[in-house]
């Protein structure tokens, strides 16, 4: 088939269960201009170079012409869609209460909480013979973790979960749904959640708790604090970027292990392999498959000039399977050590929440593995969400 | 591996980062026979970068920087005993305790030591220290904890600057005496060094440039120093940070190409003898090695960098157990980092191999920038201040010998200042008090040849 329809075919829901043959076709074809004017890149070294290229913008406002928004739920003001110096300022403020150098212990201190949330979720499933790994387990875990991090009171967690469900569905338009209506509902949920979080933060001004919202309003950086709008956008981004990605990482992980019973058995016997196994999952079945960028100058990539302002689509998941970078890339090998995958992106936008995601996935899969050993997958491939950028199953039904 | 390369006796002289990584690699590559590692310090291999940072800040103990091992190298460790000689014909390493160690293949990884204060009597004053080993770091950390009124640091290279930074962070008054026009000038050039000088002064360092220390004063205890401008600095502690000396004296009678500038080798880490003929059983890696680098016109580079020690040790070890056609060259682009005065400085390439520099991203005012270095119209290095995540892009430009100055279009709001490349002002290393951490030991960019003679470098050709 013509390579200039590759993006169309990749985003076609019919190919969601297995996009990897399309990615192989893309790597073979090199950099390809699509019929919609975008440029598709799928080879590891080219993607890695573009992620680190200062002439490549993350801000969609640099597009020469309007282009479909692959991730409307990210909002316009969040640092994931801004360039330096604004990106640097906002990400730095967001990082102060979350990671080094100001808060080096925060994520590690979450370990025991994540373990107990995981245990609670699994306990609730005791006695059930059939579960949906997504709905019953993978889905509630990260949203609960984010609530605890931000300092959302327990009694508000259910309403918070509803908003996040609406926001996640926002970008996941299914056939037969009215896009305009979905957009309205999604944007409304974004606004409401942002307002809720800002109000919550304001309540903490002057009497801080040990949570990130408190730190945002009470411990500003040397250059000042977030504005109200920035705080709302950032807090919502932490949920949007940290929730569905982690759900998919856990669900893709469970699915992959069920498809590789030998490796599942190995991980059950040698749990010390879990950190490596999670890295391999991020390479082999990454939740984040695609990122979009915009060149600020004409850029030559693999002999093709990508014009300034053209939509640039980086297929990270294709780079992860590039045989010129990874030995035996189509094999799931949880002992792989040379594994600098693109699962968390790269460059200045390298996933902010990566350390947290790693711990969540290691903990969740570690707790799930003993149960998976005796489980049967009821539908393979399972039903996938529509979203091609954030790829993962909508349901993963198993018999225990 | 083929033939009997996985058998025989391998001796590694040097038990620091390069020695350890080489030992691990030998085992990873299937070497199964006798492996001996000799080290003059009594400690198992430890990591040095934290010694001038976390250890001086009191955040880590000096003996807590033991290097993690990737695997047990299953070696016979001879620690606390120095190598004193080498007999390449008889294939033996002589040790200080009289032992003569036979080898089939040898790896030299003896690194460097701190250059001491030249006057032994003054150097022996209580309170005069150097910083290279973990014992050094323990002594200095203890002095800093005792709350000295002032510390004098002689030399404004990376080590001296990091010591000064630690002092200021602990609220200790510090004077830095630098013979060159600014700190870090040897490694990063005079233009960049202005930023370093500004950083030091902004953090309250009493920075004296263009001066030398003429004498250390004291009666048993160090009390102060005389400077060449006639002034005097009163201090309780003096740290001599005048660069490093390569540990090659033990090779003086070996007939190998070993001397003040290091141990010369080919691109595959095989050591040359003094006639320039390559050996096939003696290899070298780490700070003590000088090797030709194709990206820098095959000049003989000697790098005192953590990353180089690791990469070169791996290549050397691989080549020690691999037949000719499977041997690899050591082509890694040099990378180093430093944290001081609240900023992270990271470099790729060889900044001293340059004639011009431009600020490609960020700005001096923000103290966040990428400086790109060029030599005769191509990119040879980049140095970031608090912008390390961009470095990979510039590494690509260096590897591709991309045109200098680089093209415009940076996505950070301030376009490339390509109109204004300025001279990088890389000094002649002879004019520096401390050694630059990258030594272009072959010749300066504008010289064709430099001959090495006892007593110093003489430009020739």
Automatic annotation (TrEMBL), chain A:
Record's signal peptide: none
Cited Pfam families: p450
Source domain of life: Bacteria
Coiled-coil portions: none
Alphabetized InterPro entries for the sequence: Cyt_P450, Cyt_P450_B, Cyt_P450_sf
Family: Belongs to the cytochrome P450 family.
Protein name: Cytochrome P450
Organism: Sphaerisporangium flaviroseum
Highest classification ranks of the organism: Bacteria, Bacillati, Actinomycetota, Actinomycetes, Streptosporangiales
UniProtKB/TrEMBL annotation, chain B:
Domain FAD/NAD(P)-binding: 9-313
Cofactors: FAD
InterPro entries xref list: FAD-oxidoreductase/Apoptosis (IPR050446), FAD/NAD-bd_sf (IPR036188), FAD/NAD-binding_dom (IPR023753), FAD/NAD-linked_Rdtase_dimer_sf (IPR016156), Reductase_C (IPR028202)
Keyword set, alphabetical order: FAD, Flavoprotein, Oxidoreductase
Residue ranges of domain Reductase C-terminal in the record: 336-406
Oxidoreductase is among the record's keywords: yes
Keyword Calcium: no
Matches recorded under PANTHER family: APOPTOSIS-INDUCING FACTOR 1, RIESKE DOMAIN-CONTAINING PROTEIN-RELATED
Protein name: FAD-dependent oxidoreductase
Organism per entry: Sphaerisporangium flaviroseum
């Amino acid at each position: 088939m013509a390579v200039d329809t590759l993006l169309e075919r990749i985003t076609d829901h019919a190919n969601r269960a297995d996009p990897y043959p399309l990615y192989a076709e893309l790597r073979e074809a090199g950099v390809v201009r699509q019929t919609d004017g975008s440029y598709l890149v799928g080879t590891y070294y080219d993607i890695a170079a573009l992620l680190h290229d200062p002439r490549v913008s993350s801000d969609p406002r640099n597009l020469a012409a309007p282009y479909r928004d692959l991730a409307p739920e990210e909002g316009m003001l969040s640092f994931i869609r801004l360039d330096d110096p604004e990106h640097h300022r906002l990400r730095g403020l967001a990082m102060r209460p979350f990671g080094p150098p100001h808060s080096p212990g925060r994520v590690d201190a979450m370990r025991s909480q994540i373990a107990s949330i995981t245990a609670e979720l699994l306990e609730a499933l005791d006695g059930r013979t059939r579960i949906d790994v997504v709905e019953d387990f993978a889905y509630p875990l990260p949203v609960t973790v984010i609530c605890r991090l931000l300092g959302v009171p327990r009694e508000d967690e259910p309403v918070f979960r509803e908003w996040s469900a609406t926001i996640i569905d926002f970008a996941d338009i299914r056939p037969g749904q009215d896009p305009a209506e979905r957009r309205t509902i999604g944007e409304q949920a974004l606004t409401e959640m942002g307002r809720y979080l800002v109000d919550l933060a304001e309540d903490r001004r002057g009497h801080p708790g040990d949570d990130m919202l408190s730190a945002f309003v009470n411990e500003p950086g040397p250059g000042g604090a977030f504005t109200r709008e920035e705080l709302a956008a950032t807090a919502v981004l932490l949920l949007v970027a940290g929730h569905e990605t982690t759900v998919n990482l856990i669900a893709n992980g469970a699915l992959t292990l069920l498809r590789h019973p030998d490796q599942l058995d190995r991980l059950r016997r040698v749990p010390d392999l879990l950190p490596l196994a999670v890295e391999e999952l991020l390479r082999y079945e990454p939740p984040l498959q695609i990122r979009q960028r915009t060149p600020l100058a004409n850029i030559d990539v693999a002999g093709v000039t990508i014009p300034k302002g053209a939509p640039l689509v980086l297929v990270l998941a294709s780079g992860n399977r590039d045989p010129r970078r990874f030995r035996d890339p189509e094999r799931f090998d949880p002992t792989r050590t040379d594994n600098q995958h693109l699962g968390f992106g790269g460059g200045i936008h390298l996933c902010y929440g990566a350390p947290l995601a790693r711990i969540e996935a290691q903990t969740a899969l570690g707790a799930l593995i003993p149960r998976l050993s005796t489980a049967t997958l009821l539908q393979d491939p399972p039903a996938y969400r529509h979203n091609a950028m954030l790829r993962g199953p909508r349901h993963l039904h198993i018999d225990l | 591996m083929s033939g009997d390369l996985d058998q025989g006796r391998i001796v590694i002289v040097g038990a620091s980062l390069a020695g350890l990584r080489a030992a691990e690699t030998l085992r990873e590559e299937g070497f199964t026979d006798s492996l001996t590692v000799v080290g003059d310090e009594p400690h198992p291999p430890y990591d040095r970068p934290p010694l001038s940072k976390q250890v001086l800040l009191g955040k880590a103990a000096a003996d807590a920087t033991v290097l993690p091992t990737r695997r047990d190298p299953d070696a016979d460790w001879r620690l606390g005993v120095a190598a004193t000689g080498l007999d390449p014909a008889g294939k033996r390493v002589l040790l200080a305790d009289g032992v003569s160690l036979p080898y089939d293949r040898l790896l030299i990884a003896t690194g460097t030591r701190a250059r001491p204060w030249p006057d032994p009597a003054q150097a022996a004053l209580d309170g005069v220290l150097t910083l290279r080993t973990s014992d050094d770091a323990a002594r200095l950390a203890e002095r800093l904890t005792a709350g000295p009124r002032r510390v004098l640091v002689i030399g404004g290279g990376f080590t001296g600057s990091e010591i000064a930074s630690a002092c200021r962070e602990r609220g200790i008054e510090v004077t830095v005496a630098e013979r060159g026009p600014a700190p870090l000038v040897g490694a990063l050039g005079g233009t960049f060094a202005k930023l370093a000088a500004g950083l030091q002064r902004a953090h309250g360092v009493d920075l004296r440039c263009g001066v030398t220390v003429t004498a250390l004063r004291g009666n048993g205890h160090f009390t102060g120093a005389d400077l060449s401008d006639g002034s005097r600095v009163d201090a309780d502690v003096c740290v001599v940070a005048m660069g490093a000396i390569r540990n090659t004296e033990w090779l003086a009678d070996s007939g190998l190409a070993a001397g003040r500038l290091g141990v010369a080798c080919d691109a595959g880490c095989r050591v040359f003898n003094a006639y320039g003929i390559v050996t096939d059983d003696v290899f070298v890696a780490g700070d003590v090695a000088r090797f030709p680098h194709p990206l820098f016109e095959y000049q003989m580079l000697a790098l005192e960098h953590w990353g180089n020690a690791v990469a070169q040790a791996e290549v050397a070890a691989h080549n020690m157990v691999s037949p000719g056609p499977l041997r690899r060259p050591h082509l890694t682009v040099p990378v180093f980092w430093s944290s001081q005065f609240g900023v992270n400085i990271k470099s790729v390439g060889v900044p001293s191999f340059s004639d011009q520099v431009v600020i490609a991203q960020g700005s001096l005012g923000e103290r966040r920038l990428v400086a790109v270095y060029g030599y005769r119209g191509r990119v040879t290095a980049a140095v970031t201040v608090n912008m390390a995540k961009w470095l990979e892009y510039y590494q690509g430009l260096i590897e591709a010998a991309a045109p200098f100055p680089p093209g415009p279009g940076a996505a950070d709001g301030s376009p490339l200042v390509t109109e204004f490349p300025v001279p990088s002002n890389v000094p002649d290393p002879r004019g520096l008090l401390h050694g630059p951490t990258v030594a272009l030991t072959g010749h300066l960019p504008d010289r064709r040849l430099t001959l090495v003679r006892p007593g110093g470098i003489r430009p020739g050709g």
